[in-house]
Amino acid sequence: MKIYQDLLDGKAKLGVIGLGYVGLPIALEFAKRIAVIGFDINPKRIKMMQKGVDPSKEVEESEFKGRNIVFTDNIGVLREARFFVVAVPTPVDKFNIPDLKPVLGASETIGKVVKTGDYVVFESTVYPGCTEEDCLPVIERNSGLKMGVDFKLGYSPERINPGDKKNTLRNVVKIASGCDPIATEEIAMTYELVVDAGVHRAPSIKVAEAAKIVENTQRDLNIALMNELSMIFDRMGINTYDVLEAAGTKWNFLKFSPGLVGGHCIGVDPYYLTHKAEALGYDAKVIAASRFINDNMARNVARKVIQHVLRNAPDVNKARVLVKGVTFKEDVSDIRNSKIIDTVKEIQAFNIDVDIVDPFAEPDEVEHEYGLQLAPADGRDYDAIVIATPHAPYKALMPEDLYALCRPTGLIADLKGVFKGRITERDYWSL
Hints:
Shape: elongated
CATH class of the largest domain: Alpha Beta
Strand order of the largest sheet: 3-2-1-4-5-6-7-8
Largest sheet: 8 strands, mixed
Structural class: alpha/beta
Number of helices: 15
CATH superfamily of the largest domain: NAD(P)-binding Rossmann-like Domain
Number of domains: 2
């Protein structure tokens, strides 16, 4: 168990490439036990981390203290590592086609620093086969080395859940895989340094890649069913959450709820699987249908709000809507693939003014990513309020707080049903 022992003995360093929501927590956790090099191509982010600040606002400043870690954007420093972990994002483009530029760019970087005897482990979510068929050739071409002969390759899918302080890296089972049994065991033992819940040894890299895709595709399918039920029940005039509460009394009922499916996992990963299926000549109809339903929910929300405003606003030409929450989930600052943006732009297309507020989102990031400006504070006399992301401060509001913001003829669209049964003096709707 050479590399594992060398890491423990301080004879080798572990390098993490990509220090975002996934990479930084992993790097800091390993740095409790072994020497770590944290590498990112963004010098601004590196400077913040060198000062003990997480640009993603997920890791507390105290977590940086006493860690054996060096943060750098210098590839020369990264070359000192012998065990590399790749944790860069894997998004889709505007056509929902997998964008492999970040992971291939990281592979090129690896190719410039990998040495004989080194290990390379990818954590970025990809379709089955991507690590070996797309990333490996880039590494070998840039390094002149061969996998299995000169270095070992592996895959260990990330299971980081932004904003979740309960299901953390340490207490969630990790999956590890390698290019051969020895590599799998070395990689698994290395991860066991930081994962108390244990490490599952997958029989191949492709199996580990597929496992990650299946985790999020399964959730996407179940949420799509809830969203479709929500649209059906809305036409029936019954509340979806009332239905789910009643159905949930059965022991084997799976408790999912409707909602906007954004972020960098559930709303993205299934497209990697359908892309690979299509390349193999298979049309993944069920997965594609779920993606269609979930991708269109934001516009369904917009249509509900628009219909109410057009029918009830005292002056449609001066109609105003307030959207509370722009991050993709509650109590995080991550705005990547936030579906409420589609709702906002659909409402604006009807010449209805929209104010957006969010206590967690960075105004500069929202403007850069979506061309939208956050309002400094709530206004008054709105014709509709959309509670899109149920942040803790929004959950703490009283119905009277919302009444004060909304006209008597206004609508309170509470997407996650936080105020179900409590709004009595305004029109109320939830998914």
